[in-house]
Amino acid sequence: MVRWMRTSFLMVAWAIGAAGAQAQVQAQPIQPRLVHDCRLSDRHGLLPQRIFLLEMPAPGQVDVWDGAVKATVGQPMPATVVEDTPQTLRLKWEVRGLRATTTRGSGTQIDVIYNAVYQRGGALTMTAEILGGYENPLAQGTGSCTPG
Question: The pTM is what?
Answer without folding.
Answer: 0.74
